[in-house]
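My convention is simple: the sequence line spells out the residues, with the fold written below as integer tokens. I include a record here:
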Amino acid sequence: MNMPINTPLSFKIMIVDDNEFYTKIVSRFLSNNLKKLATIKGFALEIIACSSYKCFSEKIDATVDLLFTDYYLNDGYNGKHILDFIKNKLLKCKVVVVSQVETLQTAFLTSLAGAYEFIKKDENTLYECNGIAESIIKEKLSILN
């Protein structure tokens, strides 16, 4: 599939976490680390941050390639609701569930529900998110070339 000459290739990441400070940290980390790759490979990078299910449901669309979501959100929703929403809307984005709590429900059952991966929140989370984003970007670029 060839991209039209005047249309820049883009990669869109969405981060959903009810902790706005944490969302900003993840957004800034990914932006800073993926900027160089975007410049070298010639694609536009957009990162959307949401701190609620409502924000997520209003901003998600078919152009989002990758979504990192906390499992438990303060507004009564969780990662399973996010995965169900994406499945019901037939969206193709990959979903990575991130949680401080690693249980059968957060890790294994979200995988069964369609999560691309589960990451436990710890000191390596930012690097794991970045590695996953880089892999998915490279995969998308290889498919388009």
